[in-house]
Amino acid sequence: MPRYVVEREFPDGLNVPVNADGAKAMAGVIDVNLSDGVTWIHTYVSTDNNRRTYCVYDAPNPEAIRRVGAKNNLPVGKITEVRVLDPYFYRP
Amino acid sequence: MRLLERESDIQALNSCLERISAGEGRVVLVYGEAGIGKTALLRQFAAGQRAAKGLPARVLWGGCEALFTPHPLAPLYDIARQIGGEFPAALETATKREALFNITIDRLARLPAPAILIFEDVHWADEATLDLIKFLGRRLQGLGLMLVTSYRDDEVGPRHPLRSVIGDLPSRSVHRLHLAPLSEQAVATLAEEMGRSAKELHAVTGGNPFFVTEVLAGSQNNVPQTVRDAVIARMARLSEDALAIANLAALVPGRMERELLDRLAPGAGTAVQDCLAVGMVALEDGSLAFRHELARRAVEEHLPLPQRQALHARILAALLERADVPTARLVHHADLAGDSPAVLRFAPLAAERAAALRSHREAAAHYATALRHAGSLPDEARAELNERLSYECYLTDQIQDAIKAREAALALRRTSGNRLKEGDNARWLSRLSWFWGNKADAERYASEAVEILSALVPGRELAMAYSNRAQLGMLEDNVEAALSWGRKAIDLATTLGDQEILSHALNNVGTARMQADQSGLPDVERALKLALDGGFEEHAARAYTNLATSTVRKYDLARANRYLAEGIAYCEAHDLASWVRYMKPFRAVAHLLEGTWDKAAEDAEAVIRHPSIAPVSKITALIVLGLVRARRGDPDVETPLDEARALALPTGELQRLAPVVVARAEAAWLRGNLAERLEEVRPAYELAGKGSHSWVKGELALWLWRCGERIDELDELAKPFALQIAGNWRAAAAAWQALGCPYEQASALADGDEEKALRRALEILERLGAGPMAGMVRRKLRASGARGIARGPHGQTRQNPQGLTNREMKVLALLTEGCRNADIARRLFVSEKTVDHHVSAILAKLAVRSRGEAAAMANRLGLCAAKQQGDR
To answer: Do the Cβ atoms of B870 and A61 come within 8 Å?
Structure first.
């Protein structure tokens, strides 16, 4: 399955509290993703008041990412297909 | 023997049943190799229902049998007998399949909910049964029915018709249950319980429960290497009499009924008891069966051929003494007994019965069986069997076989001097060759048919030969040929009073004329009406398709949407699935033009995923998917567009090639290297030629123009394109807006250099989520010195009179749904404080005092209808 980086903009800053509410919100997102075969790997959040996120996903295609984005109320910006480069793999 | 390692599967079945009780629809697919324990699992599940407290769910079973050619709807008749009452008789009297399906669903709806409907071994199902599964599968919601089908996945290849059925089921209601082999530990447990050694057992059996059971039930100490050896080893313990019964039963797929058993082996009580002792089963109604189909096959294959034939002959004779035996069963035994006269008597009858229930695949198989036994028949009779075989193959997409049978028929009719049928077969070969992508043969046979038939008294055959030539003309955009042949067909059909051929011919003529202008529309509309009135379903489907595709190609979205909606609904109601799959990609094109890209992608994806999609349907779907990605700036634009090109090139038809070329040019333009596509666009533009196709030509011309080419024939292009190329972007944008095509409108506005127009373009593009073109417009605006152009789409104020931002709209939508601030914060992943700020801003902008008033105003102004578009 292809891997994607999804850029999202949160003008008000992303806020997911580390408590039962936050856990519930995350579980909800993961459940919805499942319905379209999308797996959320993890996310990098910008330190400027959490305004931008870079989310790493496995998904069957970009349409699936947009579909679950809409269902989850998450903004979807640029989607880029990526693969891994491991610097320590290179040896002299 | 008890069931091991199936707890989670039982649990999955039970939770599906709970969803049914909650009002949802569920289709469960239980699959795995032969002997993996599908039936055992379902029996256990069913037993669990009977033991359940409260109201137990009713379980109804229908099984498909391994007849060489299955009896149409056999599982439904099983189920009807279990439901009882007037249902079985009602099924017998229904001659049309729609009626039969509707009677079935009405009866099932009256069962107390929840009920469980099991179709076993559907890898052997006939076409009508598969259609019934699809029919039921799409109507389960609210019926209180759980539909379970089991099949051997290793016998269902990628082109097996079952794949297509599964592909057509609503994916949300499908639950898949793959049964895995037993673990080494489970096999050891079973061996231990039987006091046997588990050595080699797992390795040899691969954990297949049936194989394991057979081995453990046998007496020898070493492990037999195959299932067959294991079964035969068990049979070796039978007495002579008992073996004779087992051998008979092995030749009756499914089970041997009590009545048949009594006729073939009267007074065999003890022998039957012996059989039970080696693992055969006696069913409640007194019939005898093998515990597993694998065991039956092993015994059957172990019998020497002459003995097998003799036994089949005895079974056939016994069945013939009864009145109620399905003909498919008679054909099966007659064929395997080598009894040609009996095959020739029953196979055509079985084929007609199958065709009446639309089990066309089975009808074809019966005719093929008859032909294998037809060596001694006269030429004319063999020709007729071939003609019927060819027709059934044509209906089931087995085009190569259809061609072969037609060629045989043509040769036979020629030797026997039947010119009429010879000509008609040539006309058929023309149509079939076109389907197979062989244009040269299509042309050759088309002229041959007209030539042969013109020498005879003019009749239906000649009228169809004319209309076929008109159709070929229409398909290759030769309007003149389509019109001249079409008129001949229309005149002759009118003289003959033949409404079907008249509909066919009007359809060809009208569609050809629609390519040039709007004047063909009434002809095709009339063709449609004739087809609907006369119940000519294929012709109606073709008329809807031609109306829909012609209007989509002309950007006439209001008409297109009406034809698409009616046409798709008609074809779905009449099980014309391949026509639905042809029209859906055009609905995707309409969505693309209207700017509803989510829907466009959804329609396109559904078609692309389908396992038996025809290339001509797939091309359009791939183009839409590629364009949606390109316009959004999403990755993987090239895969679908490359595949579309590979599929379109061999057709050589402008209607397939032009859209691919145009899409690839657009995608390259958005990437910033349009020039590399010039060599694809130019030949397509030349192929479009003079005269007709002003829209196709316009699309191609636009990209040539963007490549810097000079376009002289502006008067041959559809108006919006001509305006845009002439540099009149303002009028072009207005024309696109009038047609309801926002992306095209924005692209015309973006050609201009006026700040106001560019800002309008940017606004449209941001609403559509058209990243790349929005970026181009933003760069243009900044370059011209415009101020306040953000780098991205955020912070934009939506076009609404209240001046609410996107974010505020979203908050308002949730507020209208009755969410508290904490809920809104959680659903939008922001803090409660932020929600507070937004709510205050909303109240101020709407000039209201409370959340309640804000919600009421939002509803009144219809503000929340737009919430789906949300952020991009």
So the answer is: no
Range of the domain at B265: 226-300
Please give the tally of structural domains in chain B: 5
Residue B491 to residue B473: CA distance in whole angstroms: 18
For residue range B538-592, list pLDDT tens digits in order.
999 999 999 999 999 999 999 999 999 999 999 988 878 888 989 999 999 999 9
- Chain A residue numbers with beta carbons less than 8 Å from the beta carbon of B635 are 2, 4, 62, 79-81
> Which residues in chain B have Cβ-Cβ distances shorter than 8 Å to A74?
829
From A35, which residue of chain B is nearest by alpha-carbon distance? B172
Residue finishing a domain among B268, B300, B332: B300
Please name the helix (run of DSSP H) or strand (run of DSSP E) that holds residue B146, with its range, or none.
strand B145-151
Summarize pLDDT for B593-609 with one digit per residue, the tens: 999 999 999 999 988 98
CA distances from B795 to A10, B79, B732, B803 (A): 10, 62, 30, 12
Left, alpha or beta for B67 (phi > 0: left; psi -120 to 50: alpha)? beta
What are the tens digits of pLDDT across the range B12-66? Answer: 999 899 888 888 889 999 999 888 999 999 999 998 887 776 677 889 999 998 8
What class is the A3-89 domain? alpha beta
Q: Cβ neighbours of residue B232 under 8 Å, at least 6 residues apart?
A: B298, B299, B302
CA atoms within 13 A on the CB side of B119: 28
Tell me, yes or no, whether B430 lies in a domain: no
Instruction: Name chain A contacts of B822, Cβ cutoff 8 Å.
Output: 21
The closest of B871, B868, B848 to B858, measured between CA atoms, is: B848
SS3 content of chain A, % helix, strand, coil (to 5): 30, 25, 40
Average pLDDT, chain B: 89
Q: Do A63 and B605 touch (CB under 8 A)?
A: yes
Mean pLDDT of B682-695: 82
The residue ranges of every structural domain in chain A are: 3-89
Residue B381 burial (CB < 10 Å; 0-12/13-18/19+)? middle
